[in-house]
Specification:
By secondary structure, the chain is α+β, with helices and mostly antiparallel strands. Helix content is 54%, strand content 8%. It is built from 21 helices and ten strands. Strands 1-2-8-5-3 form a five-stranded mixed beta sheet. A three-stranded antiparallel beta sheet has the order 4-10-9. It has a two-stranded antiparallel ribbon with strand order 6-7. A hairpin with a 5-residue loop joins strand 1 and strand 2. The longest helix has 32 residues. Keywords: Heme, Iron, Membrane, Metal-binding, Monooxygenase, Oxidoreductase, Transmembrane, Transmembrane helix. It holds the Pfam family p450. GO terms for molecular function: heme binding; iron ion binding; monooxygenase activity; oxidoreductase activity, acting on paired donors, with incorporation or reduction of molecular oxygen.
């Protein structure tokens, strides 16, 4: 848009100046229009030629940063990135190609320069040291904004700190301990759902992505909205969030292409009349509408906050806590009162991120159990059964779960190798120097957790192998705080990290204590390769799901 404005303004000046030089200065549209259009076309073409072919290679202060050279002059690395079987594979390759470079430069659509953060030290600089010197760019909102809303993820500076302080309540350890039974009840419901799909011999195959999406949407429905959605026990839930989230997170090939196109060309999505696009738009609108309805009903509930507490032990769902805080601030006539729209955006963020992260983690856990050496599953189950034997008549406590060493190793390895979050973006708010690299204001930086999570320079030659035992002997950079970025780091690390891990571990304990997982015809047909993934994808999700073999213990 800026190039169009500059070209138009310059062309108008040139047209007027030429008319004056010719002694025929006339300010009528009919007289100036032909010259204006001719100058505009030439001016715009020259600007684009400069941006495409001259600036990035001969002028840009980033031109000395190494990176891939196989891009297209018009679409950069876009084709290469989209042709991968995974949304993160190409980034991981670049990281391993340039293991010692803090940043890697590549070209996006129209040869736009992008920097990929690579080494642990560069992650520290971006996520910790200069955290608030980077902002969330418009491209990030085009990527996930219609799904997660303009909540905590997009808040900046003092606003981010204020929102984070308000939201910390539900994610405190005491509150998580109180809602643990809710998660465990839902985990038991998953067992019933899986049992219903097994034969009389206790064996069968289940599709794990859909199964655990139903479980986690029910958990976050209760803990975030205070509503029991009932997806695990009914095919006709009261609010069908799951149906609409499935459209968003698994858009199909055409939907994925439209997502990529919308990243490259701002605003193009609203002009595409294809069903793959309109169904996405309708889904995000329906999700927002349902959340708005719940928020408005709760805000105007004359019964007060005390009647909204729906969880055990006197704990409140996130929505109740936000409304309570809103009322307290209103009584103080504070300017920090969270408006209705902001509450809706926070609900969008935690509902989408809360259910998809854990559903993906469980899906990849069962995939790992089905494909990794059998001793890994045996070792995990042995630890789980030993812990449960000490609690024959009650569910595991927070302390029980935290004390399970191999469970911790296993979950860390799943999150390292199959990080649910694919990527996010930052934009330099001012001129900065990170790790000796000058980054001018306005530069877009892409943060891909898988890059450092699967770096061979950090994790060794077996970085792409599933090995939970590696966590018992971390050495070098792998032992540092910036080698494992599945939940990010610094002041903007995932606020729901402990909630997500607790939910994940609880579901996994229930699963391995009741069932043995093995391969399936789908996995055998892949010959050891990973299933095809959604690309581009907001989360690391297998296209069409993952089927694994299940046997009742």
């Amino acid at each position: 848009m800026a190039d169009i404005q500059v070209s138009a303004f310059t062309a108008l000046l040139e047209a007027v100046a030429l008319s004056g030089l010719q002694g025929t200065l006339r300010f009528s549209a009919a007289a100036l229009l032909p010259q204006f259009l001719a100058y505009f076309i030439v001016q715009y073409a020259l600007i684009k030629l400069y941006r495409l072919a001259i600036f990035p290679h001969f002028v840009s202060p980033l031109r000395h940063i190494p990176g891939p050279k196989d891009g297209h002059i018009l679409i950069g690395q876009m084709k290469n990135l989209l042709s991968e079987n995974t949304p993160v594979g190409r980034f991981v390759k670049w990281g391993n190609d340039y293991p010692n470079q803090p940043f890697i430069r590549y070209f996006d659509f129209a040869n736009k320069e992008m920097l990929m953060v690579n080494t642990p030290e560069a992650h520290k600089e971006l996520l910790q040291t200069y955290c608030y010197d980077f902002v969330k760019p418009a491209i990030l909102f085009r990527y996930v904004g219609d799904v997660i809303g303009r909540g905590l993820v997009f808040a900046e500076g003092a606003t981010h700190k204020k929102q984070r302080r308000i939201l910390l309540g539900i994610f405190s350890v005491p509150n998580l301990k109180r809602i643990l039974p809710v998660i465990q009840d839902k985990a038991a419901e998953v067992t019933g759902l899986i049992e219903s799909q097994l034969g009389e011999d206790g064996k069968g195959f289940i599709e794990v992505v859909g199964t655990y999406s139903r479980a986690t949407i029910d958990v976050v429905g209760l803990t975030v909205l205070g509503v029991n959605l009932g997806n695990l026990v009914s095919t006709d839930p009261k609010m069908n969030f799951l149906k609409y989230y499935e459209r968003v997170f698994e858009p199909g090939y055409l939907g994925a292409f439209i997502m990529a196109l919308n990243l490259a060309i701002p605003g193009v999505r609203k002009f595409i009349p294809l069903d793959a696009n309109t169904s996405h738009i309708r889904a995000t609108q329906e999700i927002r509408s349902m959340i708005l309805g719940v928020v408005r009903q709760r805000i105007h509930d004359t019964g007060g906050v005390s009647e909204m507490l729906s969880l055990p032990g006197g704990s409140a769902d996130l929505l109740s806590l936000l409304i309570e805080e809103r009322k307290n601030l209103a009584l103080k006539n504070s300017e920090d009162v969270m408006p209705e729209e902001e509450i809706v955006n926070q609900m969008l963020t935690f509902l989408a991120a809360g259910h998809e992260t854990t559903a993906a983690s469980m899906s990849w856990s069962l995939y790992a159990l089905a494909t990794a050496p059998a001793e890994i599953q045996d070792k995990l189950r042995a630890e789980v059964m030993e812990m449960l034997a000490n609690r024959p008549s009650s569910n595991p406590t927070w302390g029980d779960i935290e004390g399970m060493h191999y469970l911790r190793n296993f979950c860390h390895e799943v999150l390292r190798l199959y990080c649910p979050a694919t990527l996010t973006y930052r934009e330099a708010a001012s001129d900065l120097t990170l790790c000796g690299t000058f980054i001018p204001k306005g530069t877009n930086v892409i943060f891909v957790p898988a890059v450092v999570n699967r770096s061979k320079a950090v994790w060794g030659a077996d970085a792409d192998e599933f090995n939970p035992d590696r966590w018992d002997n971390l050495q070098g950079e792998a032992a540092g705080p910036y080698a494992f970025e599945s939940f990010s780091s610094g002041p903007r690390f995932c606020i729901g990290k402990h909630f997500a891990v607790m939910e994940y571990k609880s579901l996994l304990i229930e699963a391995v204590s009741k069932f043995r997982f093995g391969t399936s015809p789908q996995l055998e047909a892949l010959g050891g390769k990973m299933p095809e993934l959604q690309n581009p994808g907001i989360a690391l999700r297998a296209r069409g799901g993952i089927r694994v073999g299940v046997e009742r213990i």
